[in-house]
Design goal:
987 residues; alpha+beta; six-stranded mixed sheet
Length: 987
């Protein structure tokens, strides 16, 4: 029964996998992998069976006709009597088991085999052997695997021969005559040892090429000792091994023990003296005292090949003599050069998205949202925070199999917010919102299919075209009527008070568009007042729309047999018992876009940050994918998972797509993949068609790649430089920005990636997507940016950016602004400390931190500004004790330039406070007020015009605090204070 059940499970999984690949249009991948596995299984199993089986057969045939009488042999007689009647059965069981194990292991090496037989040259020769890099990346690994299987087969054959010879008296542990093995046994075992030593000779010769991966020297790759000592030693050992193998084979004639024993002793002695002692002497007494001079040529090789392998060889490095001081006049001149600053932190505003656009409790947004760019009504691209409203499952009180897999099948709609705008309350300004979706984004991209059947959340499978599917609540507009839009941002007014309206975070041109017309923002109902689940219009209500799936996604359950297969696969009898499931029904599974790409292209490593985009009327998941290798000669290896771990991924996002063993020393973003959120269509675009690793895989799997030229313009607009590739390059750039061997050896100029100062964990600061104007460029570009600090210190060492705009000629161009060592520029950690220590900043933060409110520091952005570097950090405040209904509101913006920091209720005010002590920089045509100019109405020459309003606000706060102790008296004071505020606001 166990065997039958296991066979049924295997058959069900195998056949459903084929049906899935066939439905998604990648059956060639399934069949190519299958037949490659079968071929390797058959060859490995056959070779193992022949070598081991032949050894057992010859050992049995060479058994002595007369066994000597001894206690040892008398004890073995009982085993022989038990085995002899069934020796054929034992023979086939032993040989078959070893063959199956060898075949199963070989089947797992199908990737190495396909790369070997389809290898494409890199066009780069290694400097030591003059061989193309393809030999080390594709041929060398397969030859090592092949040698490993032959080693295993010969060793197992030798062990089997010894057992059979011992069982039948050919080999004896006790013998008075001193002959412990018969001549036939000695010949048989000598031949096997000779084959083993011959394989060892081949291994020694192949090890010479493996020196390009040596870790002996100062850097990765062949070192001075490897080239001048180890390589010579390996040649000598190869010759000695061949001689020893000949001596073992010669024992066929001599038929004694002394020849093989002498050969074995020679081999071991030469391995110790030549292979270990000689290189160690050279390393310690020749290289050690002169390491820098002798290793310099090999360090240069390591630098050159590492920079090429990680595609940083063409990085532009510029010495940036950053200024640390700026006058108000210089600020005014530079104000037009600063692009829109993305203040909305995608890891913070996720809570706002959840509260304001969740609509129902079963919809969900990721913890970290994505940053894309979309045009506004005028056609200008703006940084946009995007996410799709995914379905996590049915309401908790209705969570059963039918609802989870047949009714609640899909999410609904894209949600987007301008990254550089906030409304009067500090909330992000939505450009796409509500159910059904509407907003400025829809006006620009047109109508699109909003249903999300494929995403990162939800049940592992759903069945459509069966029951009517829950589509969306009809009263969703009522639940989300208080959504901040562009109109709210435009109507907001700048004010020095944190309790007044906010302005757009965009500081371009100095004053915000709302500065001229500023009616007071109307008070809107709190976001948490949306109907609770189960109330009218909630999950328990009948006011909801239903829908039937009309796409081609999934596998059609065209027969009862198909339903049986999937019932076995998911161990779910309801798939058979539900009467609504018919031959027209479709089962949708493998719904995660990353998992779909990994399954149709198992040779690719996927990025950990797929993102949704509205493309040609559909929501498409865009997944960056990499071709990787750990076989690039001389290139330093790194742990892929460690390199891409930062605040955004550590503990909050599952890392996917890492290489087996996590080791990588070559990477290219050679594929851009898309997954249709409605029907699951997977398209693989060959983004870097010149990549030899991709060309190798295209030879193995012809026809699965789509040319880059077939990308639509709409899709191309949303392509961006991938996160994980940038993180890997950033990790390499810490050391390999140094291109001089002597400087690299000293290591004084090595950098570190700073830890995220806004996060309590000791994780690396993530790279940030933002639109910046790089020094020397006329137009701003959508970029991915990061910073470096000197190793062991906290001041800023360099600013790194990569152009992420695919329509630019410089897409993918890495740029480094290297700061002079003589100028001290605060690094991220020092700027954060300066924020925390500054008196003006503390004056604003202290009341918030001492209250019940939760203060969250947003992303600390670094961007070039006015021939220097500007730090910008938004500050979010969330009502304490508000439970799940509260969300962060952007209340303040902190900025830093040089060693100076400041805070303001918006970016413009913070810049004014930073550079002009609260005075706005003069615009063209403005004049400074005369000293004896009369003060504004309602104020005095020494008094702030808003002093009365400030006093009233303070009185309101004090009254509220007193209300906690004396409710009646304080309520009257609070009412009077609010009336005074209202009168002054109306003035």
């Amino acid at each position: 029964m166990v065997v039958i059940i296991a066979a049924l499970m295997f058959a069900a999984n195998f056949w459903t996998d084929y049906k899935w690949f066939n439905a998604v249009g990648f059956s060639t991948v399934f069949l190519t992998e299958l037949w490659t596995r079968v071929l390797l299984f058959a060859v490995a199993a056959l070779v193992m069976a022949i070598i081991v089986g032949a050894s057992i057969f010859f050992a049995y045939r060479a058994r002595p006709g007369v066994r000597p009488m001894s206690l040892e042999q008398q004890g073995l007689d009982r085993y022989r009597q038990s085995i002899d009647p069934h020796r054929k059965l034992f023979f086939w069981i032993a040989v078959g088991a070893l063959a199956l194990l060898a075949g199963a292991a070989a089947g797992g090496d199908w990737r190495a085999y396909l790369q070997f037989v389809n290898s494409v040259d890199f066009g780069t020769a290694d400097p030591e052997f003059g061989m193309d890099v393809a030999f080390f990346a594709f041929t060398y690994p397969f030859l090592r695997i092949l040698l490993g299987y032959l080693y295993a087969a010969v060793i197992l054959a030798f062990i089997a021969a010894v057992i059979v010879h011992y069982l039948y008296g050919g080999v004896r542990l006790q013998n008075d005559s001193g002959q412990r093995a018969t001549p036939a046994a000695r010949v048989h075992l000598s031949v096997l040892l000779g084959v083993f030593v011959l394989l060892r000779a081949g291994s020694y010769w192949l090890d010479r090429y493996g020196l390009v991966f040596s870790e002996r020297g100062y850097t990765f790759g062949a070192s001075y000792t490897d080239v001048n000592a180890v390589s010579t030693a390996l040649v000598i050992l190869t010759v000695i091994s061949v001689i020893c193998a000949v001596l073992f084979f010669a024992n066929i004639y001599f038929k004694n023990t002394m020849v093989p024993m002498a050969s074995l002793g020679l081999l071991v002695l030469s391995a110790v003296l030549v292979g270990v002692a000689y290189p160690e002497i050279v390393q310690r007494f020749q290289v050690g005292p002169n390491e820098q001079r002798l290793e310099s040529p090999y360090i240069e090789r390591n630098i050159e090949f590492t920079r090429e392998a990680y595609d940083i060889a063409d990085a532009e490095v510029e010495t940036y003599d950053a200024t640390t001081e700026l006058t108000p006049q210089e600020l005014s001149a530079a104000a037009d050069d600063i692009p829109s600053v993305r203040l909305a932190d995608p890891s913070v505003v996720s809570q706002t998205f959840q509260q304001m656009q969740q609509v129902r409790g079963f919809y969900q947004f990721p913890d970290v949202l994505d940053v894309d760019r979309y045009p506004d009504a005028d056609g200008n691209l703006i940084d946009t925070i995007v996410a799709v409203r995914e379905l996590d499952g049915p309401p908790e009180d209705q969570d059963n199999w039918l609802n989870r897999h047949l009714i609640y099948t899909h999410g609904y709609g894209m949600v987007a917010a301008a990254g550089n705008l906030i409304d009067a309350e500090g909330r992000p300004v939505f450009t796409e919102y509500n159910i059904p979706p509407r907003g400025e984004l829809s006006d620009v991209v047109g109508e699109y299919e909003p249903r999300i059947y494929y995403g990162r959340e939800g049940a592992d499978y759903v069945i459509v075209e069966a029951e009517q599917e829950y589509d969306y609540p009809l009263d969703a507009e009522e639940d989300t009527e208080d959504v901040p839009t562009l109109d709210d941002a435009v109507d907001a007014s700048p004010s020095p008070s944190a309790d007044e309206a906010r302005v757009p975070a965009d500081s371009e041109g100095g004053e915000s568009p709302a500065a001229e017309e500023s009616p007071a923002a109307e008070e809107s109902p709190a976001a948490e007042e949306s109907p609770a689940e189960g109330e009218e219009g909630g999950e328990g209500s009948t006011s909801q729309a239903y829908n039937n799936y009309a796409g081609d996604g999934g596998v059609q359950l065209s027969s009862f047999f198909d339903r049986v297969l999937y019932a076995i696969k998911y161990q779910e009898p309801n798939i058979l018992l539900n009467s609504a499931i018919s031959s027209d029904s479709r089962i949708i599974y493998e719904r995660d876009p990353v998992e779909r790409v990994e399954k149709v292209a198992p040779f690719l490593t996927t990025d950990s940050s797929p993102y949704p985009a509205v493309v040609d009327g559909r929501v498409q998941w865009i997944v960056d994918a990499y071709t990787t290798s750990d076989g690039y000669p001389y290139a330093n290896r790194i742990d892929f998972t460690d390199a891409v771990t930062d605040t955004f991924t550590d503990g909050s996002a599952q890392q996917v797509g890492a290489l087996p063993g996590n080791e990588v020393n070559y990477i290219r973003n050679s594929v851009k993949a898309t997954v249709d959120a409605y029907d699951g269509t997977v398209t693989l675009y060959a983004w870097d068609e010149q990549d030899p690793v991709l060309q190798t895989w295209m030879g193995a799997f012809p026809g699965i790649m789509t040319s880059r030229d077939e990308m639509s313009e709409d899709l191309l607009d949303h392509v961006r430089y991938p996160d994980d590739l940038f993180k890997v390059q950033r990790e390499i750039m810490r050391e390999y920005h140094v291109t001089d061997a002597s400087s690299y050896y000293g290591g004084q100029d090595f950098w570190s990636v700073p830890t995220d100062p806004t996060n309590e964990t000791e994780t690396s600061e993530p790279p940030y997507r933002q639109t910046i104007r790089y020094p020397g460029e006329e137009e701003p570009n959508f970029s991915l940016t990061s910073t470096f600090v000197p190793r062991g210190r906290e001041n800023l060492a360099a600013f790194m950016a990569v152009n992420s705009n695919p329509n630019s000629d410089d897409y993918g161009q890495l740029r480094l602004l290297e700061l002079p060592r003589s100028t001290v520029i605060f690094g991220p950690g020092q700027v954060q400390n300066a924020f925390d220590a500054d008196a003006d900043v503390r004056e604003v933060l202290l009341p918030l931190e001492q209250s019940n409110a939760e203060v969250t520091r947003g992303n600390l952005l670094t961007l070039p500004f006015a021939e220097g570097l500007l730090y910008v950090e938004p500050l979010y405040v969330q009502a304490g004790g508000g439970g799940a209904a509260s969300f962060p509101l952007l209340q303040q913006v902190m900025v830093g330039f040089g060693e100076e920091v400041a805070i303001g209720s918006n970016l413009q005010e913070a810049l004014n406070n930073l550079f002009a002590e609260g005075e706005a920089p003069l615009e063209e045509g403005d004049t400074a007020p005369e000293e004896d100019e009369e003060p504004a109405e309602g104020g005095s020459g020494d008094e702030n015009p808003n002093q009365e309003l400030t006093d009233s606000l303070n009185e309101a706060v004090e009254a509220w605090e007193d209300a906690q102790e004396s409710q009646d008296e304080a309520d009257e004071r609070l009412r009077e204070a609010l009336e005074a505020i209202e009168e002054q606001m109306n003035e």
